[in-house]
Amino acid sequence: QPLVSSSKWLQLHGLKRNKLSLSQILSQIGFQHRTDYVTTLGKLVASRYADGLFPQYKRAQDGSVYNLTAKKELILHFVECLMGAIKLYKQRMEWLTSESRQIFGVIQERCIVIVLDFGTVAPTEFDLCRDALSMVLVEQVTQIAKFNLIRAAQDLTKWQQKSTPVSEHTVNAAVTWLWTLDHMTAASHTSSAEALLEAMSDEAVSS
C-alpha cells in the first residue's frame, strides 16, 4: 500500500466520500419527519400524516426522526456497501499495526534522517533494534526519495555525509552498515541532541 496518512486515506475511502455516512444513507432511503413552528398556535408542531404509515428511525445524536420509504433491495444494497467498507477499514487497521508501521508509524516525508540512539541496551535488545530498523528501511524507506542514518555517540557516526537517493543498492548498503555497528560506544549527555542537530542541518530534510 502507498505510504499515505489516515486522513488522506479517508478522503479516498471514507464513508462520507462514498456517500455511506448515516445522514447520507438516511436521505436516500427516506425523508425527515418535520417539526415546524405554527404561528397561530404559537408552538412547535410535528407533522402526523406519516405516523403508522412508514417505519421510523430516530437518530440518537440529535433526536431527529426519519420516515423510511426505501424498498428492501435498496436497503440490502447499502448493507452490502457498508460490509465492504468495514472490510476495507479492517484491512487498513491491520496494515497500520503490522511490521515496521507498528513501531515507526507511516513515513510520509520524501526525505528523512533516522537518528539511532541505542543508549546502554543489552546485546539482544541492540539486535532487536537493528532488526526493526532493517525492516523500516526495506518496507518504507524504499518508497521515498532520500535518506540517511546517524548514530548518536560521543564520536557521532554517519552512514553518509548527507541524505542519499533511495535505490535498492543504497538501502542494502544501509542495512549492511547497521549490522557492522559496535554494540557499545562511548556516549555523552549531549550526544542525542548533537545527532538531532546534525540531522536537521541536512538541507534536504524538512522536518
From TrEMBL:
Q: Which domain of life is it from?
A: Eukaryota
Q: Can you name this protein?
A: VWA3B protein
Task: Please give the organism.
Answer: Podilymbus podiceps
